[in-house]
Design brief:
The structure holds 2 protein chains of 2 kinds. By secondary structure, chain A is mainly α. Chain A has 32 helices and 8 strands. The longest helix of chain A has 31 residues. Classes of the chains: A mainly alpha, B alpha/beta.
Chain lengths: 723, 245
């Protein structure tokens, strides 16, 4: 009984924290339509700030609390709304999600930049060591404060929403913001206040939970997953139901902590994943959403052209060969993921770009691929690669089937939950059997992946693996382009715009949705298997949710519907950033925030930056002479590099100079043609007459002739002047 | 017997009764009009027939088959096709591709061996979109967008064609052409159910007209009968109205 009460209190304390964070989440989602993935990260940042003030600088607790909770937390909320979120009104759900996920990554980056990770930062609980005796059990002051704060928050929110003018405005905005606007509500002000309150609640949650967990940026930020689960109970709308959800999750975690047998390997890791599993289950009970119809999608991705795809494929393979022949093993390991994890980026193109669905678990599917390749690719059997694709696709189906009827935010949450469950729980399980199938995971923490053997050749060097993954990238890229040209591809793109219209043609939406999800998971599995071969041995940490987010963000920033978007992500994350990191530790730390910064800017350019980049080099692409000259210089440079007459840096500089020079030359050659004096507007440009040339009777006659009004208007009406 | 029969259909949104025991019939080979003031429940009737909103009571029968509890896509396979009051075009695709998607989807479930490319071209020609077939649909006018939706619906070779305000956004010439096109479609035996605010078009092309007001069917009859019906004049056109245009 005593034990039961103790763990009830533990559970309720957790519930209180989840409820406080989640109600902030619901408030901002309901009033501004933005699901704030960074809610936990805001709490994390405030907790760090509080630690800095209270424990590092030794400020008195009330002052530190006041500054953290009433200045920093709401200030951060308002700043985020003002600078980042306000511009997102009217953009697609995917874009809004990417921006808030980027914010999560960016804030973790900020925390790691200011507070060196891995350093111990002890933080005592409130009134450490003091307990209240409740007769049947005792409870620490910190627990009592936590539960009390949640109750005050609940009462305060209720009062705010139902008793104040502001609350009425907020609720009206939830119902219909344009109507609310007509009735004098001020959405900008309401959004600002919601975000301030959201930040404040996140801050409270962060400060209350940090001392009992650990002051760690990633850990605290991902606490938000537990809060999401609570918010799902309230369907992201109802604060009271969110509290109910929080209590259910907190108590579950409390009792699991108390009663789960610690010596059972299968269950030991279950507790941290419990919230995620509850989240997944809660999603099953979300009612079927109305079919999505055409929103204001600002995004547009043109279908790839055959010539463009051929050039891209050749370019990728050539780049792979050049890197394989010029870089040493250490550099090849660094830059290896450009193409292998670039394939994981490609897996997002059909899913996010064509079908408009969101998955945050692509790197987890890559992990499944790597795992499969490790177990079944012994002696380098190609069967390992094939199975990596198949198993990842099957796991994709298993994840997708229960939640596929949902879309947008719910699918994003379900996949995030899956990624966390895999990383925290499933990947760490010992072997088990499901019927006749024996399942082995990461038995001892890491597994070795044998290099592929094909037609007697073993890809056992980093150089050969670089070429292999470049070829695989090119192949998958062509496959993705072919998909876009195919019947299925058109169907996916159509579903992205209007699922309702597709259903009225007799299309069962479930199968294309599951199909594209499985395909995408399979592609990610291939990328993961190749990545595993490059690493030689793989561990679950390589494939966790936070590691995967930058790939997702940058593919969308590049252009989610474009093969070039995936290449952009791969080159940037695994090519440009590591190169830049070589310049110094500060740059390396800023790099960690890079994808966050890039994603936050997405609202400005929702179709991605690749089309802009591609336009910039259009002159060169269309100028055969300049293209040949540029290529010639590059080949010459490559020859010099191979002959060791140039170092790698000189070679890179030469390539850059050739590329820029080629572009400048091509633009210079193109200019005279475009600079031809435009001919005088003739009588054919009638709409400009009066602006570009003086008005003459000849123009009037011509206009009469062109419009031919006489023949269109019944004669008698003209006669009566009754037109 | 009518191909489409909606019997005493009721639909409520919260406390609001959008359809109240409303019945509509659309016989094959005819154009049936469904008119009524804004908010009368016309689009809700379309949504109830196609399965986009759940009904509280009533039955929907297509070709003698009760589809009341059938899902949206299965109803479409029974031969229902529709257009939307607010355009639901596939903005990343061209006019030709928009129509082709519908033809391809149908080909699959109908196990049609026919040439969908040829069907698409034929429909483009028929609805008069040949000159813009390779344009992205975002480049079109609203009127042309409605033709694309009609083309997509025709590509489903429907038994019942539901058109939700197809003439809005079209000029007089286009509307006249459109009316002729509807006549041709009906002549093939298809049942056409037309929701339209352009009374001239309704009176011109419809064989029978149903009048909805506040979720209830107020009158059913030939265009001439409906025009004379005092209830209709009172509720729909406003008391004392003399003209229908």
């Amino acid at each position: 009984m005593d034990k039961f009460l103790i763990f009830t209190v533990v559970g309720l304390t957790l519930s209180a924290v989840y409820a406080v964070i989640a109600s902030g989440l619901v408030l901002t989602y309901a009033t501004t339509g933005i699901f704030n993935f960074a809610q936990g990260a805001i709490g994390m940042l405030v907790a760090f700030a509080y630690w800095q003030l209270r424990f590092d600088w030794g400020w008195p607790t009330p002052v530190a609390l006041f500054v953290s909770l009433f200045v920093l937390a709401p200030g951060l909320g308002v700043a985020i709304e003002r600078v980042i979120m306000r511009g997102l009104r009217g953009s697609g759900e995917a874009t809004r999600l990417v921006v808030s996920i980027s914010l999560l990554v960016g804030l973790i980056g900020v925390a790691n930049l200011v507070w060196e990770p891995g350093v111990s930062r002890p933080m005592s609980t409130f009134y450490e060591g003091r307990r209240v005796d409740l007769g049947v059990t005792t409870i620490t002051y910190h627990q009592a404060i936590t539960i009390g704060v949640a109750l005050v928050v609940a009462a305060g929110l209720r009062w705010l929403m139902y008793r104040t003018r502001m609350g009425v405005s907020m609720r009206s905005v939830v119902d219909d913001d344009s109507l609310a606007l007509l009735n004098g509500a001020r959405p900008n002000r309401i959004a600002g206040i919601s975000w301030a309150i959201g930040g404040f609640l996140a801050g409270i949650g962060g400060i209350l939970i940090a001392p009992t967990l650990s002051l760690e940026a990633g850990l605290l930020s991902l606490l938000i997953i537990n809060a999401y689960a609570a918010a799902i109970f309230g369907r992201l709308r109802s604060i009271p139901l969110t509290f109910v959800g929080a209590i259910a999750i907190g108590l579950t975690e409390g009792y699991l902590a108390g009663y789960l047998p610690g010596d059972n390997q299968y269950l030991a890791a279950f507790r941290p994943a419990a919230a995620v599993i509850i989240l997944f289950l809660a999603l099953l009970f979300v009612p079927n959403p109305r079919l999505r119809s055409r929103g204001q999608t600002k995004e547009f991705y043109p279908a790839p052209t055959g010539r463009g795809m051929a050039m891209l494929a050749v370019l990728v393979v050539v780049a792979g060969v050049v890197m394989a022949t010029t870089l040493d093993t250490v550099d090849l390991i660094t830059y290896g993921p450009i193409f292998s994890l670039g394939i994981v980026g490609l897996s997002l193109v059909p899913l996010v770009g064509f079908a408009g669905q969101i998955s945050l678990a692509q790197l987890s599917f890559a992990g499944v691929g790597a795992l499969t390749a490790a177990h079944h690719g012994g002696n380098g059997s190609p069967l390992g690669l094939v199975l990596a694709v198949v198993v990842a696709a099957l796991v994709g189906v298993v994840v997708a089937l229960p939640v596929m009827r949902l879309s947008g935010i719910y699918l994003a949450l379900a996949t995030a939950a899956f990624a966390v469950a895999l990383d925290r729980w499933l990947f760490n399980l010992p072997d088990f059997d499901i019927g006749p199938v024996h399942i082995s995971l990461f038995e001892v923490g890491s597994l070795s992946v044998a290099p592929l053997r094909l037609f007697g050749y073993t890809f056992d060097s980093q150089a050969s693996l670089m070429v292999l993954s470049a070829v695989a990238f090119a192949g998958v890229a062509l496959g993705v382009a072919a998909l876009r040209w195919s019947r299925f591809g058109r169907q996916l793109v159509a579903m992205r715009d209007s699922e309702a219209a597709c259903a009225t043609f007799g299309l069962n939406l479930l199968w294309p949705r599951v199909g594209v999800f499985a395909l995408s998971a399979g592609i990610a599995g291939l990328g993961g298997a190749l990545y595993g071969m490059q690493l030689g041995s793989v561990a679950p940490a390589r494939f966790d949710l936070l590691t995967g987010l930058p790939i997702f963000i940058l593919v969308v920033v590049g252009g989610a519907g474009l093969v070039g978007g995936a290449l952009f992500a791969g080159v940037l994350i695994y090519g440009v950033l590591p190169t830049a990191a070589g310049l110094g530790t500060t740059v390396a730390k800023i790099n960690a925030m890079f994808s966050g910064l890039a994603g936050v800017g997405l609202g400005r350019n929702p179709s991605g930056v690749v089309p802009t980049l591609s336009e910039a080099v259009e002159a060169l692409r269309n100028d055969t002479v300049a293209l040949a000259a540029t290529g010639g210089v590059m080949v010459l440079g490559y020859g010099l590099r191979l002959a060791d007459l140039l170092g790698n840096w000189q070679f890179v500089v030469l390539l850059a100079v050739a590329f820029i020079g080629g572009n400048v030359a091509a633009m210079g050659r193109a200019e005279p043609a475009g600079d031809e004096p435009t001919s005088e507007p003739s009588l054919d440009d009638l709409e400009w007459v009066g602006l570009t040339q003086p008005w003459t009777p000849a123009h009037l006659a011509r206009m009469e002739q062109v419009l031919d009004l006489d023949s269109m208007v019944p004669k008698e009406r003209v006669a009566h002047g009754d037109s | 017997m009518a191909i489409l029969e909606a019997h005493e259909v009721s639909v409520s949104f919260g406390g609001h009764r959008a359809l109240d025991l409303a019945s509509v019939e659309a016989p094959g080979g005819e154009i049936t009009g469904l008119i009524g003031p804004n908010g009368a429940g016309k689009t809700t009737m379309f949504n109830a027939i196609t399965g986009m909103v759940p009904t509280n009571s009533g039955r929907i029968v297509v070709d003698g088959k009760d589809v009341t509890s059938t899902s949206l896509h299965r109803r479409a396979r029974c031969g229902l096709a529709r257009t939307f009051q607010q355009l639901e075009l596939f903005t990343m695709l061209t006019v030709r591709e928009n129509i082709r998607v519908a033809a391809d989807v149908r080909k699959r479930w109908a196990r049609d061996k026919g040439d969908m490319r040829a069907l698409t071209e034929e429909i483009i020609e028929r609805v008069g979109l040949a000159s813009v077939a390779d344009e992205r649909v975002t480049a079109l006018s609203t009127g042309q967008g409605r033709l694309v939706e009609l083309g997509r619906a025709l590509a489903c070779k429907p038994r019942v064609l539901l058109l939700d305000e197809p003439a809005s956004g079209q000029d007089d010439n286009e509307t006249a052409r459109f009316g002729r096109l509807l006549g041709e479609v009906a002549a093939t035996g298809t049942a056409v159910l037309l929701v339209e605010h352009d009374m001239a078009l309704v009176m011109d092309v419809c064989d029978r007209v149903h009048v909805l007001d506040l979720g209830r069917i107020l009158a059913v009859g030939s265009p001439a009968e409906v025009q004379q019906n005092p209830l209709v004049l009172d509720a729909y056109l406003g008391a004392g109205s003399q003209s229908t245009t």
